[in-house]
Records
---
Amino acid sequence: MNHCFEVDGVEYQLWLSRCREDYRLCLHDRVIAPVAFSHRDDGCGVVMIAGESQPVRFAIDGETIHVHMNGETRSLHYRDPLRTLARSKQETTQAVARAPMPGVVIVTRVSPGQAVSVGTPLMTIESMKLETVIRSPQDGIVERIHFKQGESFEQDAVLVTLLEERT
């Protein structure tokens, strides 16, 4: 699964996948394996990276994870990939909802001409057996729905185009 964290103002994208009994961590173009984490309920645990184990203390506060390891404390701020993608697309384009990953349209929840508000569910998609609700990135009117129920699309495809609502 793809994850994004911000540490000390720098954003890191990583991919975690299953590797036998542990995990494989892909950080940029680097692959680290095996990676494992065991924890207790008291905020303590052990992280194993490439065969080396380290005790770790951690606290989770919403989308921030405070980690104390090797005498240093770091705060990792989780960035939801869907929100990050929607925000970046808002900066470069206006009024479109894009596919965060390749998939298939399960259901469309709006129709052309319908007024929507930011956060309104536009459609539900399925990718890798995971259903995701695509929400409106802004207030507007649905201009076009680019894929019908059952149609597949690639990552970053425009799913829904919105017109800015004029008052």
---
Amino acid sequence: MNRPLHEPLFFGAHERTLFGLLHSQPGPQRRAMVLCAPLLQEGIRSHRALWVLAESAAASGVASLCFDWYGTGDSAGEDTALSLAGMLADLDQARQTLALRAGTDRIEWLALRSAALPLLVHLAASSQPVELVLWDPQLSGTALVESWYEQHRAQMYGSGRYPHARHEPEPDELLGFAVDASLLGALRALDATQLQLPRGSHVRLLLWQADDDIVRFSHSQRMHGVTVETVLLEDLDRPGWEEPTQFGSQAYPRRSVARISQQWESAR
């Protein structure tokens, strides 16, 4: 087996340049996948896990593109440029770029945590069945934003991060990022359990545990002709996403990543 190639690339319109890393084998690709990172701090924390998954997928013949949302990472734009409408445009641009580079229109998707929200909005508008993996998805925008504020308060005043001085954040600061209020408003309005994927789609849920939103989402999709498969991961392997003491640490659930990678291999 050839080792996957790693190609950093900038793509998209000049005024909205995105950065991505394409993992692929030499030659034509059987399949291709866009991997979507979660938002804010979890996007940084999960970088290694997504990189390893993209690498293993490429080794199994699935060309994989990880990219930074506009306004994040190495893509252009300031923090405050991150928006729901922008993320939907980014997803379309990533799909087009990967289809062109991989030479296939068969694009699959993977979203981790909060990335599920923009991805499901994007795919619900598709006219064709879609293939996607949702890893520990957050399906309630309201709950997501509230959890961010709770984590923010814990970091500011409860974690001991500033033992000798009281740090007063800027009005638009959230978890160390400048976040535009319109993004938070758009996310709060999202309830992905109410979104419907095209009939004939296939969803694989990778879960450490299922909550009520997951149950409602799964039931709704199945009622509309979508196949939903659930893969339970080892609960003890779940990163402490909400744990204040792990705020800046890498979230690399080794056993879960290995199990997901094995699925790429078995699907060859």
